[in-house]
Amino acid sequence: MKNIINNEKVNLVAELIKESKYTVVLTGAGVSTGSGIADFRTPGKGIWEKVDPLKVTSITAFEENPQRFYHFYRPRIEILSRVSPNPAHKAIARLEEMGYIKCLITQNIDNLHQKAGSRKIIEVHGTLKEAVCRKCGKMISSELLLKEIETSEERVPYCACGGVFKPNVVLFGEMLPNLDPAIFESKRADLMLTVGSSLQVSPANML
Q: Looking at 71, 89, 113, 125, which residue is catalytic?
């Protein structure tokens, strides 16, 4: 019975996509769990089960104690080179290639949609594939960021100007620079599919 119900849902979604003229997909952390990346809120294993995000991953926490911030964030940056897109990422990319999906809005920062082949992507929470100096604005890759952490006695990546590099992601307390284009695309959509998101994070849950 469960398989029948699931098949009915799949068929329904397929029909909706075929009939839609402008489908937009919104993805969250659940899409990447199949690639070995933990989500944030799953009871017993979510990232926020053991960590208070406001004390570690807010912009205030970063500015007050970048060493503690990178103690938490470094493993999340390192895992990027070891993970690959899973069937969900690939299916979304394939649907875009076929012309069914017009835009992908993602809350994820892992770059897996790009690796899968998706092209029109709005990353509302930024990306871990690069970092920016808080002082001069210089951009570096995540690979170079890790090297800077390794060579620093404090395990904090400093820029030549003396500023601290910050992953190009949106931390708690920061504005979402890509929110306006995400709102624009969501308003254009006659069908919006949500995949792998609990829709608990604002303002992405209001799209």
A: 125
Q: Please give the average per-residue pLDDT across 124-135, as a whole number.
A: 97
Can you read off the two tokens belonging to residue 97? 């290639």
Assign 2 a pLDDT band (cuts: 50, 70, 90). very low
We report the CATH number of the domain holding residue 51 as 3.30.1600.10
**Assigned domain for 6 exists:** no
Q: Is 71 a catalytic residue?
A: no
**Contact predicate 166/131, CB 8 Å:** yes
Tell me the torsion sign for CA atoms 165, 73, 172, 93. Answer: positive
What is the dihedral sign for C-alpha 99, 103, 107, 113? positive
Q: Tens of pLDDT along 63-109?
A: 999 999 999 999 999 998 899 999 999 999 999 999 999 999 999 99
Whether residue 2 lies inside any domain: the answer is no
Which region among 44-48, 68-72, 136-140 has the lowest average model confidence (pLDDT)?
Answer: 44-48
For the chain, how many structural domains are there in total?
1
pLDDT at 4: 40
Instruction: Provide the strand spans (E) within 52-199.
Output: 101-106, 121-123, 126-133, 139-141, 165-169, 191-195
Bridge pairing between strands 121-123 and 101-106:
parallel
